[in-house]
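Reply to dn_fold:

You asked what the input looked like. This is it:
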Amino acid sequence: MIVSIAAWAVLSANYIAVNPQTLVNRFLNGVAEPIRGIGIRLTNRQKLDEKLSQTNTEIKSKFPLPLTEGAADLYSSNLSVLFANGIRWAPRPILQSYSAYTPALAILNSDRLVSAGTNRVFFKIEPIDWRYPALEDGKTWITLLTKYRASGVASDYVVLDKATDSNRDQVEVPISSFIGRLGEEFNVPDVSGAVVASIDIQPTRLGKLATLAFAPTPLRMAVTYDNGKQAEYRYVAEMGSSTFLLSPTVSTSKEFMAMQSVVAQDYFYGHKPTSIRIFDQGELGFLWKRDFKVHLSRVRIEPNEAVDAMLFQQPIKVGKFGEYKSSPDCFIDYVNEADPNGRPISTDSDLLRLKGWAMISAKEGIQSDGVSIALVSPDGSALIYPLDKSNREDVGIHFGHPDAKMVGFEDMLNIRAVDPVTDVRIVQKGRRALCLRSDLPHGAASPRSWVTCSRPQGHAPAHRQRVRDRAIAVAALAPRRRRAITPVDAARAPVCACSLLGAIDTSAA
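and this is what came back:
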């Protein structure tokens, strides 16, 4: 017992304050709780059953899941959600994903998923200890993405149903194999589909001896992405020696579902690693061999059109978009990761990423009930997409209203099938107004911008035309290889295109 307490103290010291008082409290709780449970079971079994029923009711109300025929499994660890919803469980050998920490255990879970005939999986990404997310049950991720189809979302879980062609072999196409070295970068190729990796980092003899008494010394993984940003994760060597999804980096359940999107390649811009560097903590580097083997392969994931309907807001078509008076109370921070203020932007993506803020009255601190974006065609018709609001406390503070926090918007629109567009307008519920870009926080340089959507080849950049001051001209936001650019007349260009919903009769906008 003394050895157990000492081991707990050493491990827990990384997370909580360990002192004599916490040791005593932990010991007493460890003894008192089982005794209390045994007493209730012997003297008042009905109370125990009532408590179980009450707890299940609370869990089900918080995490409702759809009715499921047959057995199902739930990832990554909170199985009480499955039990509380009365769903029959199809267990995997390693019940919690973070515990499948060796290649053998990862293969057991993946093979069980195929052989057991589990027709439905509720999937949620919940990595622990800042691990690279795909390391936990990494091989199972590939099985789920290739042999299951996303059919819905419930309580933050992606609902995955076995595909009708799930018996088809999972094909990994080799890309490259090479020797990497701790502390040095290696490149990740930019290919269509998912890049899976097996990175075999082995401990030294001294490192193997050390693991008999202690957990392996943690490694770190520094990632540089295709948009230039960087991130750092904890890397578990044994997990990484099995197959896991390396690119793109998938951190949320929504992103996992997006792997099956028709526009997945565009969706994961900014999530694709271009280089990886795995390194040790320095003082205990002698516990790991410096060289390691890397195997990279490509896996094709079948597109699932149903995913796009769940991922992206569906637009409302309006026959005629009205004219509105000017207002200074909105701003577009970026379009597809680029600042649209004062310089031209070109994109060949099927997706339109928008971030900014909008208020009915910045001076009075009046927030809108909802924000949308309107893509207005030359004939005056428009597609209106509801946008997700976000916290932009900085904007409220700038205008002297610190309580005005949810005034931002940030969303991604699928414009793959959109007709040529001349205007982009921000729409709010409230009074009619057209938003001029002036009196902006953070010293925005110029309200003049040009946003175009060009094909990869064969089209002269429309932004060479002159655009008059204080105008934003938006030319043909068209998917790749589908439509030519239709430049707008700069003299007719809308002034920062922010409109407050009034004439448009739709409650969803």
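Residues 63 and 155 are 5 Å apart (CA to CA).
Hope that clears it up.
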